[in-house]
Design a protein that fits this description.
Blueprint (H helix, E strand, L loop, with lengths): L1 H5 L1 H11 L14 H36 L9 H13 L3 E4 L5 E7 L6 E6 L4 E4 L6 E8 L12 E6 L2 E9 L10 E6 L8 E4 L5 E2 L3 E4 L2 H20 L3 E8 L7 H9 L7 E9 L11 E5 L7 H17 L6 E4 L6 H6 L4 E10 L4 E2 L3 E2 L2 E4 H16 L6 H23 L19
Parallel strand pairs: 3-12, 3-13, 13-16, 14-15
Antiparallel strand pairs: 1-2, 2-12, 4-5, 4-9, 5-8, 6-7, 6-9, 7-8, 10-11, 11-19, 14-16, 16-19, 17-18
Helix pairs in contact: 2-3, 3-5, 3-9, 5-9, 7-9
The structure holds zinc ion.
Amino acid sequence: MKRLARSWLGASWFLNGFGGTNGSWLCKNTKCACRKARRKVSIALKLSVSIVRAVRRNQLLSLARRLLSLPTAPFHEERVAQFIREFAIARGLRVRTDKFGNLIVGYRRGRGHRPVAFVAHMDHPGFEAVEDAAGGFVMTRFLGSVPRQYFRTGGRVRMFGADGEQRATIWSVPDVDWKKEKLVRLRLKGAVRRGDFGMWDLAPVKTNHRVIWSRACDDLAGCVVLLAMLDELAQSRASASAYAVFTRAEEAGFHGAMGLMRSRLIPQSAIVISVESSKELPHAPMGQGPIIRVGDRATTFDSRVTMFLEEMAARVARADRRFTFQRRLMDGGTCESTVFCHSGYRAGAACLAMGNYHNLGPGEHIREEYVDVGDMQKAVQFFIEVARRSNDYGRAPRLLKKRLDALFERGRRQLLQTAAVIRVPAPAVGAFEELE
Ligand SMILES: [Zn+2]
């Protein structure tokens, strides 16, 4: 069972190949014993696949528990980065960092694949001490987009420093322009050094196996999906060329992503896909599969990449009836794909719908964010297909052009014949000069 569980790809191939619908390996006699045998095999296969699914879900949850429990904030991603580095090295994957501290994990097997770079960010909105304090009060700045009314006196914060962690509470919010700088004065007992960081004092991670709640799903859930994808690729030894890129300080203003563009470590030929946890919207609910994101609040993304992603997701859906996906404009926030598109990359995006975006819970209370575990599993399945079939990029637009051309040819004659009554005589040269 362990061997079977090791490769989802193997299992799905096994199921599709063996349990195929035509049953050509059977004789035609309906009373023959081989029919009974087939039923038994089919039941056994269904059982194995559901066990494989359960094993995979447990593996994903175990990974999520470990990664999501690590503290992080913009510019303070070192613990998450260390976990990712160790995870990749243990699987024999190549890890690089650029000079801005972004992590790039490479998976390459086989030749001639167009590279795909999946990008998730390692930070989450959080606090940063702007002064040393021996105890009592400390001034912090909040990095990330959270409205001022959520910073109530008594709000609970957890500070992380070289000497460990400690609890703090919000004391006051100085009367300065919130849009320019989010200054928050905290009250605490112990000492704090300038540069120590803090998070909302919420559960690091908890789950009921269907939903994961965490103080920082955005975007550690995206990081978990990418690590699970790398794990799967490494174990199945799939032929593909993929990068999993982990960026820094996204919440403070895309600093890591912009640094990544300047360090030029991602080949220009790569398809770049931003992987986010995005605010759940009425038309993009959680639990209905990963979302192919056609754009964000700022821009729309490369339509060829979006078409490619849609083709790949439809392909997975054909092979696995339980797989679902969505294709939506997620304009609840801006993501790194906007940066990549504007740096000349062919970039698209995919995301998980997430509740309590940026910890903004009902009634203006700070709460854990949450994501659907099934959506995460499906995202892993989807990204593996994208990585393995990256050479299909460009096929969907070519097919679309063919279809449009064929459609035009079908009506061309009638269009020409009926045009005579509409056509006006060609204007004499210079007739439009006056208009210009
Ligand atoms: Zn995010």
